[in-house]
Automatic annotation (TrEMBL):
TM region positions: 44-65, 77-99, 111-131, 151-171, 178-199, 205-225
Entry keyword Transferase: yes
Domain PABS: residue ranges: 212-453
Name of this chain's protein: Spermine synthase
Low complexity bias (residue ranges): 533-545, 555-572
PANTHER family with a match to the protein in the record: THERMOSPERMINE SYNTHASE ACAULIS5 (PTHR43317)
NCBIfam families: MFS_SpdSyn
Length: 581
């Protein structure tokens, strides 16, 4: 069999251009998801918006490039590469401020991310669309079909490389700006190869200039547009799952995941709690027949590990924690007082998905706490009836399940709560829910389900609380007062694996205020809740005492109001929803 000559298999300059455009276009798509997630979340509307805009921009580029391909040259492709690289420099330099301004546009929440996607990633993707038809025109292949198939194959291979490298190599190792710089320099290098070996003066000078712009943008953009004023950045990294930051502000240290606060620690007294909903995590212990009989507890979601550490300190129980992101666990160990899990006798850490862990473990738990979130969203596969049945199977016969749900207690924004409650009822004999705010705003609603028939009434819970408050170290009187009546779930769906309804149920919450009530005393002894939240009009004005507010689906600088009876230097531990598993 004849061996083809080396020259016949060596990639041509148009081949290289198509391959690099494939790498870059897919890499920019992956980068867009990481860039927009801290501001707009990573729900289906953000992801779908990115795919829609980028595919539209690429198609428009293909169309325009095809109309002009008859006069295509390598030098023209070189200029297209340089123009794309220059725009990537703009994205690196000014993405933060552009995200901030586009997020304030008066659009329905589900479409809020579209202007940012169009401005930041539409133009470079459009320019890259010209490359394939230009390369097909310049191809040495015989016939239109062969040339087109060759270009499609190279572009797709480039997209595979760009997707895989960005996902598995670049994002874990580099910052978003660093990845943008890498793609920009890759485009500049390709532009030079396209005009080599002559290296004409104008394209060469332009290449050097664009390379300098990229370097300056990556080095100076974050410093120039540091506008969130959250405090001193103690630690920052891009993990395979999210952007992780640890920030000190005064005496408090806060963990941010994709721009949302997840756990906070008072550096002077790390055993204090302030967010009301974290105290409610102890409701399953109150509903257990005997606290001393609770030997094994599972937390799905770790974050700063404030909840698991609290349980390990208060109870004579082994606490397993499923935290999918090892970098989050490392940060909790380094900055939030978590003991080295390999050396701890009380806390065991499992770096995997929560549902996969339950499917694979043979362990039986007395209490399972679900506190897994990506911003304000529960991962879909942790909401369905199939998951709830799995949880029930992994609980002891008298086990208790606690789910932290972000929703409104009633009204249009309560659709997810009512569906989640009905889904829990399908798998458990009894379920109870507790609001954490007297307002009707989106808030943390705690659902507790029992694996046996219980039918607790308020008087029984109060009696248990009176008897156990000192032993448990937590007074749950406020939680009992905030027990909700069983919601009307007649028109609520049962969430199932084969029906992706969670995003549509969360849709009414997007853009609404999310209120986290604060406790007046977050200490280890008995705790007293703040006064009830003000009506909705007061909340809108940011005057709700003892509450922290942000907007669901769109990250904003939070409004923090501490109740007047709390001294300014009152220490607190604050924990928001844990990282998604």
């Amino acid at each position: 069999m004849a061996v083809p000559a080396f020259s016949s298999v060596r990639p041509s300059k148009p081949d290289l251009a198509v391959f690099i455009s494939g790498v870059t276009s897919m890499g920019l798509e992956m980068l867009a998801m990481r860039t927009l997630a801290p501001e707009f979340g990573n729900h289906i509307y953000t992801v779908g918006g990115i795919l829609t805009v980028l595919l539209a921009a690429l198609s428009l580029g293909y169309w325009q490039g095809g109309k002009r391909a008859a006069v295509a040259t390598n030098r023209q492709m070189s200029w297209l590469m340089l123009a794309t690289a220059a725009y990537v420099g703009v994205v690196v330099f000014a993405s933060d401020i552009l995200l901030m301004y586009t997020s304030t546009l008066a659009l329905p929440a589900r479409y809020a991310s579209l202007p940012a996607v169009i401005i930041l990633f539409g133009p470079p993707t459009y320019l890259l669309g010209f490359i394939s038809p230009y390369a097909a025109e310049l191809s040495k292949k015989e016939g239109t079909g062969e040339a087109s198939g060759h270009v499609y194959a190279l572009g797709t291979i480039g997209s595979i490389v760009g997707s895989g490298a960005t996902t598995f190599v670049f994002i874990p190792a580099l910052s978003i700006d660093g990845i943008g710089l890498l793609f920009g320099l890759m485009l500049v290098g390709t532009a030079l190869v396209l005009v080599a070996p002559e290296l004409p003066r104008r394209p060469t000078a332009a290449s050097v200039f664009v390379a300098l712009v990229l370097v300056v943008a990556a080095a100076g953009g974050p410093a120039l547009f540091d506008i969130d004023h959250r405090g001193e950045v103690v630690y920052e990294t891009q993990t395979p799952y999210q952007q992780l930051e640890v920030i000190d502000n005064g005496g408090e240290r806060t963990m941010y995941l994709d721009g949302a606060q997840h756990s906070a620690l008072d550096l002077d007294q790390p055993d204090r709690h302030v967010f009301t909903y974290t105290k409610y995590f102890h409701l399953p212990m109150l509903m257990s027949d005997d606290v001393e009989d609770v030997d094994r507890v599972l937390f799905i979601g770790g974050g700063g590990y404030t909840g698991p550490q609290d349980f390990a300190d208060r109870y004579n129980a082994t606490v397993d924690v499923v935290e999918i992101d090892p970098s989050v666990t490392d940060a909790a160990e380094e900055y939030f007082g978590l003991e080295d899990p390999e050396q701890s006798d009380d806390i065991n850490v499992h770096a995997t998905d929560g549902r996969q862990f339950l499917q694979r473990t043979d362990e039986t738990y007395d209490v399972i706490v679900l506190d897994a979130y990506k911003k304000e969203q529960v991962p879909f596969h942790l909401t369905t009836v199939e998951f709830m049945e799995l949880v029930s199977d992994r609980l002891a016969d008298d086990g208790r399940f606690h789910a932290n749900v972000i929703s409104a207690p009633n009204g249009p924004a309560a659709e997810f709560y009512r569906a989640q409650y009905r889904t829990v009822q399908e798998a458990f004999p009894d379920a109870y829910s507790f609001r954490t705010s007297d307002s009707n705003a989106v808030q943390n609603i705690e659902i507790v389900a029992t694996n046996d028939d219980t039918a607790f009434d308020e008087s029984e819970l109060e009696a248990r609380n009176d008897a156990r408050a000192e032993t448990m170290g937590v007074d749950l009187g406020g939680a009992i007062d905030n027990r909700l009546d069983e919601p009307n779930t007649d028109d609520a769906p049962v969430l199932r694996d084969d029906r992706g309804e969670v995003d549509s149920l969360l849709d009414p919450m997007l853009g609404q205020r999310y209120v986290i009530e604060e406790s007046a005393d977050g200490g280890g002894g008995t705790e007293t809740d703040t006064e009830p939240a003000e009506p909705a009009a007061a909340i809108a004005a940011g005057s709700d005492p003892g509450a922290k507010e942000t907007l669901v689906g769109q990250d904003r600088a939070p409004i923090i109001d501490i109740s007047p009876d709390i001294a300014p230097d009152t220490p607190a531990v604050r924990s928001a929803p844990a990282v998604a598993t």
